[in-house]
Each structure stands twice: as C-alpha cells, then as structure tokens.
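STRUCTURE:
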C-alpha cells in the first residue's frame, strides 16, 4: 500500500534549514528554562555570595511576575489581597476645606497593567513594595516609628502627590493633608474546598499627614 505521509519522519530526514531552525529553537528554550530555574533558586535559597552580588538582577527578574512570599524551607504563600487607598483635605481658593472621596491607587495600577504585555515596574512594584516597607514600621496606632518609618512615610507621601496632585489641585485647590488606608480581602478558597473564609474587607486606616514642600517630588504641584 502506498503511503502519502510519514508522521514518524526522523529529524535527520528534514532539510538542513529546518534542522537549524529546530535546533536553535530547542537550544533557546533550554537556555531560558535553565536561566529561570537558576534565578528562582537564587531567589528562594539562603543568602549566598552569588545572590548578594547579583541581587539587583535577580530582583528585576523575579518581581513581580514570579514573586513568592516564602522561602525554600518555610512555605507561606500569600492569602490576602491588599489595596492601598488615599483621600485628602483640600483647601479651595475661597478658603473652604473639603474632604475628597477615597481613591484606590492599587486599582488604578491594576487597570494600567491589565491587557498590557509590557507593564512598567513602577506600575507593578512601586505602590505595593512601598506599602510593604511602610506597614512594617507602623505601631499599634498606625503611626510610623523610627528613622526608617519616617523615611518610608515621606516616600509614600511623594508617591501619592506625584500621582494625585494634578487631579486634586485642578481648579486652584491646595492639598492640606492626606490619609492612607489599606483594604485587605482574603483570597477565597477553591469551590471544592470545605474551608470557610469571610470575604468582608478589613481596613487599616492611618492618621492624617500634613503635606509640606518636602513632600512634593519633581513634577508634582500643590497650588
């Protein structure tokens, strides 16, 4: 019986250009897999000379797509979604002071990343990492403590003013104070799980912060 095709055709039977293309593709995939495994191992492994020397390169590769909140021998995956929100006291040109509604900065970053094949590291990391640093210095009254706490608080005020000052000061208003809060919502278990978790958000509200000239990064205004 005549055969019109051979699905088990060996690689050696292919033309030279086809073999070059297949070999190049296979080599590229193998190299990419090895690089990925090496980066992830250095990220989760205990600190060593190589990981310290290449910490910037490893962080740029891992965050945020492959970030994991656990170490090699202490699994602790993230189980909550945290959204950072802000509002402000504005003083209008006639002297009236008004309070804005809450603006969800995390949601804005999420919208900027959605369907974007090449989102910036600022959109992915700036707000989230800034809040992680700041929240680690807050005391029982949600006030930043120590020198690092003050530094992180100034950093976050600059982030807020850079993003929101143009919107808030439209019409001649001046930003007097800002207030941050974090909305934390549990990640619900899969349908097949019998675990019961509340989906009610929990809020961590910080005190009001007065805005000064030192809180205005380049490009931000406060009329």
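SEQUENCE:
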């Amino acid at each position: 019986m005549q055969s019109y095709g051979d699905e088990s055709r060996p690689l050696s039977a292919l033309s030279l250009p086809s073999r070059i293309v297949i070999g190049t593709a296979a080599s590229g995939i193998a190299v990419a897999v090895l690089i990925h495994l090496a980066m992830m191992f250095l990220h989760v492994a205990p600190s060593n000379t190589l990981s310290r020397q290449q910490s910037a390169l490893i962080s740029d590769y891992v965050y945020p797509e492959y970030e994991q909140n656990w170490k090699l021998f202490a699994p602790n995956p993230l189980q909550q979604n945290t959204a950072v929100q802000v509002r402000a006291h504005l003083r209008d040109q006639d002297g009236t002071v008004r309070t804005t509604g809450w603006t969800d900065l995390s949601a804005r970053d999420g919208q900027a990343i959605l369907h974007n094949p090449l989102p910036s590291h600022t959109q992915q990391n700036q707000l989230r990492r800034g809040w992680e640093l700041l929240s680690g210095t807050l005391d029982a009254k949600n006030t930043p403590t120590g020198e690092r706490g003050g530094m992180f608080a100034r950093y976050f005020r600059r982030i807020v003013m850079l993003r929101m000052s143009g919107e808030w000061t439209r019409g001649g208003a001046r930003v007097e104070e800002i207030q941050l809060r974090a909305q934390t919502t549990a990640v619900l278990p899969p349908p097949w799980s019998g675990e019961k978790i509340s989906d009610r958000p929990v809020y961590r509200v910080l005190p009001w912060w007065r805005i000064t000239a030192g809180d205005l990064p380049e490009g931000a205004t406060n009329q």
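REMARK: The helical segments are 16-44, 49-53, 55-62, 105-113, 121-135, 146-168.
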